Amino acid sequence: MSFVSGALAQFSAPAWTLLAQTTAATPPNEGKTLLQHILSGGPIGIVIILLSFTAVLMAVWLVAEIRLPRLAPPRVVEGLDRLLAANDVRGALAFCQAEENRCLLTGMFAAALTRCLRSPFGLLELRSALEEAGQERFARLQRKTDPMGLIAAVAPMLGLLGTVVGLVGAFETLSVSEGVRPEALASSISVALITTVLGLIVAIPATALHSFFRNRVDALAQNVAELTEELAARIQSSKPAGGQSPTPAGRAPAPTTAGAR
């Protein structure tokens, strides 16, 4: 025990002495502004700051993009419901393909109705076609959140890179200078670590936002699925008795042979 205590005392004494000298010699940061702290991170710190602005702009865009009135506007839902209830399949397809009605819901119905009109099974494939179209479009919507996840992953890596580069430069400077000054070493390490701080400041909210938007997409997918189910039930409930598809799979009636022999 006495040997261990003596070794710890011999090891810790220089460390405490060096820490005390560093604390006493470090100049106060009262005159250092936030901008100066950021600029002390160098080019890598500036890149991280640009990533933070990109993340903010992307978050604002995703908030405006990933919401139910954007994916399925009430005006579009009412118009599509009216056409499907009237069994006007081609009118519903034209309504979904109109530029002013473009949204995720009309995109799903446009793809599904187009497939049904071309299929010999007609509207019997409506539900499966809507499911496939919905999966494709919501996967595309999920991919819109990927840049936010990329920023959350890259920002701390850039911060770590800036710290490593700063430490290498600091130790190279100390190796060529005469004598090791604790205050110079502490200042160099502080400047090197600022990029790690900046990277974590960007990565933590970016990670939270990425998770939030992905969960929001999942929740909206459930809402749109319920809405799609109601609309599909409208057109299927309007089928004539006997289980035949309305307007033979939604196809246009055969041209009359008036005038033809």
Order of helices and strands: HHHHHHHHHHH
Overall average residue pLDDT = 78
Shape: rod-shaped
Task: Report the structural category.
Answer: mainly alpha
Number of strands: 0
First and last CA, distance: 116 Å
Radius of gyration: 32 Å
Tally of helical segments: 11
Q: How much helix, percentage-wise, in residues?
A: over 70%
- What share of residues are in beta strands? under 5%
Main beta sheet: strand number and arrangement?
A: none
Which regions are unreliable across 5 or more consecutive residues at pLDDT < 50? Answer: 1-29, 240-261
List keywords for this structure.
261 residues, mainly alpha, 78% helix, rod-shaped, disordered N terminus
Structure write-up:
The protein has helices at 2-25, 34-39, 42-65, 68-71, 74-85, 89-97, 104-118, 126-143, 146-176, 182-237, 247-250. The model is unreliable at 1-29 and 240-261 (pLDDT under 50). It has eleven helices and no strands. It has 261 residues and is an all-alpha fold. It starts with a helix and ends in an 11-residue tail after the last helix. The longest helix has 56 residues, at 182-237.
